[in-house]
């Protein structure tokens, strides 16, 4: 199994990258992957995505410790993911109160996958806009550029909110998985771009194409190639994670 990561600030964001990514093991055979995109129209959106990522990592680490010591039984992936999101939901709700945060300071998308690296089963949940590649198929989750952020629902019972989520994917045998924030659709020509006829499909090139699969820095190389060969750069921040089984 090989993991590829990319986090790049967009050309239109001069100060901060508003995206974030998480790769965190959970026990011997489970792996959590997530990409997050802070809302540009929110307050200090880089803080929102970073905070949510740190909370997610904390929750997964704590569950791993509890499973190791026998305090928490290992559950099916769907149940495990639900438990993780429930814990994140409660942690963020408490932090909102403790830090006196406004809802606009917590607006970030969250696209999370829980993968069994032994059986290769995977479950994916997209809370907001995202592009997910699973076994050679691209799935776009779009909410008309108005994501229904988790932070909007902290006042609600968790189960009531979670049971309404429909942006989910499952696969019993994952061979190739990719998660990307919506910055993957923001690649545009620079002012000095050379004219090229055959400009690649950027999401397919970064999430599906197998060229350079033997290189850990595959995504970085491809993004540089997009700029140097086609004059394409991301105008929005972009976070990408890919997992490939040999």
N- to C-terminal separation?
6 Å
Count of individual beta strands: 12
CATH level-3 fold name: Phosphatase 2c, domain 1
> Over the alpha carbons, how many angstroms does the gyration radius reach?
18 Å
**Mean of residue pLDDT?**
92
| Secondary-structure element string | EEEHHEEEEHEEEHHEE
CATH architecture assignment: 4-Layer Sandwich
Biggest β-sheet strands, sense, barrel: 5 strands, antiparallel
The outline comes out as globular
CATH 4th-level superfamily? PPM-type phosphatase domain
Strand content: 25-35%
Structural overview:
It holds the Pfam family PP2C_2. There is one protein chain. With 246 residues, the chain is of the alpha+beta class. The protein has one domain (2-244): PPM-type phosphatase domain (Phosphatase 2c, domain 1, 4-Layer Sandwich), CATH 3.60.40.10. 28% of the residues lie in helices and 29% in strands. It has 5 helices and 12 strands. The strands form 3 sheets. It has a 5-stranded antiparallel β-sheet. Strand 4 and strand 5 (122-127) form a beta hairpin. The longest helix has 24 residues, at 45-68. The radius of gyration is 18 Å and the shape is globular.
How is this structure best summarized?
This protein is of the alpha+beta class. The chain contains 5 helices and 12 strands. 28% of the residues lie in helices and 29% in strands.
Which properties best describe this structure?
single chain; 246 residues; alpha+beta; Phosphatase 2c, domain 1; 5-stranded antiparallel beta sheet; 5 helices; 12 strands; 28% helix
Topology record:
Elements: E1 2-8, E2 19-26, E3 30-38, H1 45-68, H2 77-98, E4 108-116, E5 122-127, E6 130-134, E7 137-141, H3 158-162, E8 168-171, E9 176-180, E10 187-189, H4 202-207, H5 218-230, E11 232-234, E12 238-244
Antiparallel strand pairs: 1-12, 2-3, 3-4, 4-5, 5-8, 6-7, 6-9, 9-12, 10-11
Protein name: PPM-type phosphatase domain-containing protein
Domain PPM-type phosphatase: 15-189
Organism: Hymenobacter swuensis DY53
